[in-house]
Amino acid sequence: MASSADVHIRICGQEIIKYDLEIKALIQDIRDCPGPQSALMELNSQVKQKFNKLRLRIQDLEQMAKEQDRESDRLAIQAETESQRRQMLSNQTAWRKSNLACKLAIDSMEKDELLRSGENQSTRQRKATKENLVETSSNITESLMSISRMMAEQVKQSEDTIGSLATSSRTVQETNEEFKNMTGTIHLGRKLILKYNRRELTDKLLIFLALALFLATVLYILKKRLFPFI
Predict the structure, then answer these.
(1) Which of 22, 147, 11 is nearest to 88 (CA)?
(2) What are the residue boundaries of the Sec20 C-terminal domain, all occurrences included (predicted)?
(3) Whole-number Å distance between alpha carbons of 230 and 226
(4) Which residues does 33 contact at the CB level (< 8 Å), separation at least 6?
(5) Burial code of 15-49, b = ≥16 C-beta within 10 A, e = fewer?
(6) 103 in a domain, yes or no?
(7) In this model, does residue 144 exceed pLDDT 60?
(8) I need a surface site. Which of 4, 38, 138, 180 has the fewest CB within 10 A?
(9) Could you tell me which of 160, 157, 158, 152 has the C-alpha nearest to residue 99?
(10) What is the pLDDT of residues 162-208, one digit of tens each?
């Protein structure tokens, strides 16, 4: 039967996979989004929420790895954590590219619609169209600034994630070095034990020979004193 910790690790892994798939689906929605700007901003808000949840679950998985008793389990979970972090960084890159492509497409479409409508209107309507164009351009600029700030936040989070990956890699390397040192120490201890066992056997043999020589000497002296004529 699986332990409670194993169940929690499995659930955490399943949630990470779920958030990853949801993020990929939202990125595809952004890539195919025909507009308007409000729809794009709503999709970006959903993606940001999913990334925050995914990041928390990856941190939970990393903490579970530190709590493992067996070194093999800890290393396996750490490797899975690093893999999920790399996947998250890949998703962030795809999100930025899809966002920019969709933004440019919507901007181009809106400008084309404004230009076409302007050609069929009167002078008075053209004036209104220009005002709408200015307002739309202002909204587009504001939206671009909002997207830029959001992307700046994601870049900072990506830098933090890369830093965590580097720390995890160093931890794994240090653990491997400790294993190598422990293996060498075990081999050395085994050799010393074998050496001491052989020495103990030799010492016992020498004591036995000395005792035999002592007894032989005692018997010889007794023989000379008690039976000098033999």
Answers:
(1) 22
(2) 136-226
(3) 9
(4) 39, 40, 43, 102, 106
(5) bbeebbebbbebbebbbebeeebeebeebbeebbe
(6) yes
(7) yes
(8) 4
(9) 152
(10) 777 777 667 767 767 776 777 778 888 788 788 877 888 888 888 88
What is d(CA 211, CA 88) in angstroms, rounded to the nearest whole number? 78
Q: What is the token pair recorded at 198? A: 């052989």
In a domain? residue 68: yes
Asked if residue 45 is part of any domain, the answer here is yes
Tokens of 55: 């990041």
Residue 69 lies in a domain: yes
Query: What distance in Å separates the CA atoms of residue 18 and residue 156, rounded to the nearest whole number?
Result: 24
Distance CA 94, CA 102 (A): 12
CB 78 within 8 A of CB 172: yes
Residue of 96, 92, 101 lying closest to 32 (CA atoms): 101
Domain count, the chain: 1
CB hemisphere CA count around 40 (13 angstroms): 25
Q: What is the CATH number of the domain that holds 53?
A: 1.20.58.400
Query: What does the block give as tokens for 66?
Result: 């530190």
